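Co-fold these.
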Amino acid sequence: MVEQATVAAEVHQTSTGIENTKLGMWVFLGSECLLFGALISVFLLYRNHALGGARLHDVYDIPFTSVSSFVLLMSSLTMVLALAAIQRGDQHRLRTWLLATALLGMTFISGQIYEFTIFVHKGFTVHSSVAGASFYILTSFHGAHVTVGILMLLSLYGMSTRGMLPQERSTAVEYIGLYWHFVDIVWIVIFTLVYLIPAPK
Amino acid sequence: MATGGNVAAKAEHAHPNEKVYIKVALWLGAITAAEIAISYIKMPNPAKIAALLILSIIKFSAVVGYFMHLKFDNPTLRKPFITGVILAGSLYTIVLLAFTLHSNAAPR
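Predicted complex below.
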């Protein structure tokens, strides 16, 4: 145990005092801001290019998307509670919160798929206009990020049940947690800019 | 080397407890409710947009600061992320302004 702690302390010794993986994760998230910034900008630029067809503001359902947003927001809470649980060595709570986060993520994705189905039935498709294409590219990219997050959460859950995620490896939960929270903050921006802010006439 | 690590470690603060996380989540829920209410209220578009953007920035900052611990972790970690946010925000604002101000230049 003492040896493990010594090894861990040696690994964490860097010139900045920050673990390289953690710094790398933040750099990655910083670069992701540019990716999503580009996708959001493209949507904002083209959202009125509906070519006479349905526009997003004609087909969306704010109350439904609001519930989805709330679900994703609460998954950030369960994620941070999972991190707090592993940091104090509570494996049972860790698994409970990880599973809760993954389930909330799945609920969000199910809601998104349902929403897409409704939009397509109302004539707002990826092929209907540039507005449609930019909307589906943006939200699908975000959905893909959420899906990757769910897979990572389920992997953590599996590792925990096999005893492969002891308290000393809490950083694994922390890094995946950072990614999950990032997915949440991207949705905070998308929800406001794409859904809530009225489109110019 | 070790001195750098010690200085960095001193700059970090203890993470908040679970009660703080729950309080933050409740505030986030309340702000989301306020955003939805504002989106339905009839008011001038500039005021509506400003209110929604401010609330969105508050939510964004709360998640980054509390749930991602950027408020409590080593300040060095803020640099790469804040650089990304500012770069993305300013770059795409310029692009959007360029296309909006010169609407003829907007690709069709």
